[in-house]
Design goal:
heterodimer, A: about 775 residues, alpha+beta, eight-stranded antiparallel beta sheet, seven-stranded antiparallel beta sheet, 51 strands, about 40% strand, B: about 110 residues, two-stranded antiparallel sheet, 7 helices, 2 strands
């Protein structure tokens, strides 16, 4: 039902309990934040190791103030095996609109909404520690910025940034317990929906989803569809579940013009229904044609793809009785009755022939010229170009903003699109926090049989190596990976190497271990066939193993390829807990941009989809595996922001810290001021770990390169520093989808593709690919 | 449905539509047109309209319409199978689908004259 998932908010992003748990775990691990607290209260033996269980269930064992809402319950098990005790904090989430004019930040608010802290060792409550933990959370942590929502309060275009973000914890008290965190977005022209009615809509197995209210999509589509049809957007009406043409307009393409009397997009359960009606009159006919179809969506290789299935068209033709009789009589004289049919019905107006020659017969007529020649390409353009590029733009913009925006402090998230559903339009994704922790060594190692591996340095060698963590020993099918020199291994059971974050390694049980070859890869039958490539003799399990190296660092490895004489091993070794600082930042080329309608094809590319898998499918097939035609793209050159944001992230360096920034050799001694970067004037602002640099010159250089350095001091006088070479280029390029006006799209359709009239003989349901595409001699493009 | 287009203002639509026929056939068409009311009544039945599309002479004669000699001879040679080109058309679209147009033909009196 339209608006059901979004409860009339324009868009809603939902995250599972687990994904928010991952973000908070990454937050507490990334800065060594929890580790510094544990060290300060005498729990240093935990070595910073913890695991977190975060619940959206409102706790019943903790007194909460009346009206407290959006409650989360954080339960930390301290130590690698959780044996050192359990820390607990109950706090509220809120949308922080005060920190930045440009962001509403969904955050855990420890400053004002910390309702409870506790510490138990075994089942024994320990006094004092809860108060210390509360002070730590209120004063040192303050808030956990979970998701920054970019906003533009004054926006007037529904395709611009949201005007407001809101937050809601969905605490499902039913047996299903489908809890989630919802971030609701309202755009220009929209209104705040019913937050209390929101429910979990994330597909099982995914960690988040974006749902788009069809009415908002229609508000964005209306000007784009109207522009593409070169008409006024007032000629379209919108509702909660539809966008439709409210008057007759002319459409043309491929040299034909006709009246478009109906065009409607309507949200249905699982698809968007598409209806078009077209009318054309000639000397001896009046014809109307109707085509309906369904737009379905899927995610292919992380990209959103919208495809249209077109139903059989219905055509009504009125012919004066004498026209038909006269045409039949002329046909006999001319000896070409197909020509008579075309001549009687279409020839009188010089009717075009669509498709070409099939089986030696000239084909065409009103159906081909108007319905197949204009309406079908228009409907395909609406589905594959307008809707796809618009929804892709919306989802892409949201994903870009969540990935990393250094304007506000927040854990970055990579959103990997997994599935898309239309009811409202909901896109499921896998949300992965981006960790900022020091990596000691990482890469891919090639290890020959009998060699040893030092994961602390990424070295491979023989027994003469000074230190080693793993050995690849044995021969043939008896080979095995074995821990060495006190290194310990744990089987994670996971296969997603990229999804491993440092804090996920803490709770595993590490021990001396041997991993046999058959656990790493399955030898394929007939491995000695001469034509089989070396890389295809084994089917790798791609299991991920966690290690504590001989030198005490956490590491993660995955055997990615197995050969007869060697293996390839992917690894990442984290640095030990030690004071460090990492510097990140840039002059970003950001922007919230939805596709524009363009009236000419200058600098526009049509990237046709490879058609090797194309199969003809009769329309009666329920869900034909349709090919999409391609994408319209262009390279956009935008100005790089003259303001750069830089942030310093410290690790295991606690207490009151002072940040000293140096830019292009200049010490920045005040909270704000000016400086010279080469020949350029710039201003700066400093807020502890956050430096904002703004270039002042009207005319910017082609490129500018300079060093940014930060030195962090603690109260004891210890110092750590990091530097980064920053490049500023005045322009940046990005690839975006565009919507050419439909005249151009229809013309391109006919230049690149053939709509082929098939012989009257009954069609086979599916034919072999080689027979599907008409040969060049058998097809003729429309003129 | 929009009105069938008329090309020349001086002649009736009927006259324009038979202009390409020989003078003899034109005369016979005018003769036949005197039975237009009866023909239209016959063609108002959708089954009979279908027959008219593929077997015009047969339908007219079965309906008691007097078809002049020369016109009758020409219509005797009409190949009924070829009418299918108008009534059923199947297209292969570039996205891999095939669609078959359902075409309904209705025979009318033509544009009103005067």
């Amino acid at each position: 039902m339209p608006g059901n998932q979004t409860q009339r908010f324009d868009a809603v992003m939902e995250f599972t309990e687990q994904s928010v748990n991952d973000v908070i775990s990454t937050f507490f691990d990334s800065g060594g934040l929890l580790s510094s607290f544990l060290n300060a209260v005498g729990l240093g033996s935990a070595e910073g190791a913890f695991s977190l269980d975060m619940l959206f269930d409102r706790p019943s064992d903790v007194p909460l103030p009346g009206g407290a809402s959006n409650i989360i319950d954080l339960r930390f098990d301290i130590g690698a095996d959780g044996s050192l005790g359990q820390l607990r904090a109950v706090a509220g989430l809120h949308m922080n609109r005060a920190t930045s004019n440009d962001f509403d930040i969904a955050e855990v608010d420890f400053r004002n909404q910390l309702h409870f802290t506790g510490f138990t060792a075994g089942s024994i409550p320990i006094p004092l520690l809860p108060n210390l933990f509360a002070n730590f959370l209120r004063n040192q942590v303050g808030a956990i910025p979970l998701f920054p929502v970019p906003v533009k309060r004054t926006a007037t275009d529904p395709a611009d940034l949201p005007t407001q973000g809101d937050i809601r914890i969905i605490d499902d008290t039913s047996a299903a317990d489908r809890d989630a965190l919802a971030i609701m977005l309202t755009f220009a022209g929209g209104s705040v929906g019913n937050a209390a009615g929101l429910q979990h809509f994330i597909n099982p197995g995914d960690t988040g989803a974006i749902a788009i209210f069809f009415r908002w999509l229609a508000r964005i589509l209306r000007p784009r569809v109207a522009s593409a049809l070169q008409t006024d957007q007032a000629n379209f009406d919108i509702g909660d579940d539809f966008l439709r043409l409210n008057r007759t307009i002319q459409v043309s393409g491929g040299g034909e013009t006709a009246d478009l009397t109906k065009l409607e997009l309507r949200l249905r359960n699982g698809f968007i229904e598409l209806k078009g009606e077209i009318a054309k009159s000639g000397f001896c006919y009046d014809a109307t044609g109707k085509i309906a179809g369904r737009i379905r969506a899927e995610v292919v290789g992380g990209e959103l793809v919208f495809k249209a299935e077109i139903d059989n068209p219905d055509v009504d033709v009125d012919i004066p009785w004498y026209c038909w009789l006269g045409a039949a009589a002329i046909g006999v004289i001319a000896g070409g009755l197909v020509g008579v049919l075309v001549g009687a019905v279409v020839g009188a107006v010089g009717g075009a022939v669509v498709g070409g020659v099939v089986g030696g017969a000239v084909v065409g007529g009103i159906v081909g010229a108007i319905l197949i020649g204009i309406l079908v390409p228009v409907l395909l353009a609406i589905a594959e170009n307008v809707i796809e590029t618009t929804v892709e733009g919306i989802a892409g913009n949201l994903a870009d903003k969540l990935r990393q925006d250094l304007q506000v402090p927040a854990i970055g998230l990579n959103l990997i699109f997994q599935r898309v559903f239309i009811d409202d339009v909901a896109i499921n994704f896998d949300a992965r926090p981006i960790e900022k922790v020091p990596i000691r060594a990482s890469g891919v190692l090639e290890v020959r049989n009998g060699q040893l591996i030092d994961l602390d340095n990424g070295q491979v060698g023989s027994e003469s190596m000074g230190s080693a963590d793993l050995e690849w020993r044995g021969s043939g099918f008896g080979r095995q990976l074995r821990t060495r020199c006190g290194a310990r291994l744990a089987r994670t059971g996971l296969q997603d190497f990229a999804g491993i974050l440092r804090w996920k390694l803490y709770p595993f049980h590490y021990a001396d271990a041997t991993v046999p070859l058959h656990e790493l890869a399955i030898p394929l039958p007939f491995p000695d066939l001469p034509f089989l490539p070396e890389s295809q003799k084994y089917l790798e399990t791609r299991l991920v193993y966690a290690l504590k190296t001989a030198e005490g660092r956490y590491s993660v490895v995955q055997v990615s390829e197995v050969f007869d004489d060697r293996i390839r091993l992917r690894y990442k070794t984290y640095e030990k807990p030690m004071p460090s600082v990492q510097l990140s930042g840039e002059f970003a080329c950001d922007g919230w941009q939805l596709p524009e309608v363009v009236a000419d094809l200058e600098n526009i590319r049509f990237e046709a989809t490879p058609r090797t898998n194309l199969r003809f499918q009769p329309s009666k097939v329920a869900h034909p595996a349709l090919a999409r035609l391609g994408r319209w793209r262009r390279t956009v050159i935008r100005q790089t922001s003259r303001t750069g944001h830089f942030r310093a992230a410290v690790e295991n360096f606690s207490g009151t810290l002072r940040y000293h920034w140096h830019v292009a050799g200049t010490d920045l001694l005040k909270k704000q001021g000016t400086l010279d970067i080469g020949s350029q004037k710039a201003t700066y602002q400093i807020d502890q770990d956050h430096l904002i640099l703004t270039l002042q010159a009207q005319k910017l250089p082609r490129a500018l390169e300079f060093l940014v350095k930060v030195t962090v001091n603690d109260q004891a006088g210890n110092a750590i520093s990091a530097s980064k070479c920053v490049k500023f280029a005045p322009f940046c390029k990005s690839e975006v989808g565009v919507i050419p006006v439909f005249d151009l799209q229809v013309d391109t359709f006919h230049q690149r593709f053939s709509v082929v009239r098939l012989p009257l003989a009954t069609l086979e349901p599916t034919v072999e690919p080689t027979a599907q595409q008409p040969s060049k001699t058998a097809s003729r493009k429309r003129k | 449905m929009a009105k069938t287009k008329s090309q020349k203002s001086g002649q009736s639509h009927f006259d324009q539509s038979i202009a390409q026929l020989s003078p003899s056939l034109q005369r016979e068409m005018r003769e036949l047109r005197k039975q237009e009311a009866k023909i239209l009544k016959l063609l108002s039945d959708s089954h009979k309209a279908e027959q008219y599309l593929s077997h015009p002479l047969q339908l007219l004669q079965a309906g008691g319409i007097q078809v002049p000699t020369l016109l009758k001879r020409r219509l005797q040679q009409f190949d009924p199978n070829l009418a299918q080109h108008l009534s059923r058309q199947t297209y292969a679209l570039p996205n891999g689908q095939t669609v078959t147009a359902r075409i309904r033909v209705r025979f009318t009196q033509g544009p009103r004259e005067g």
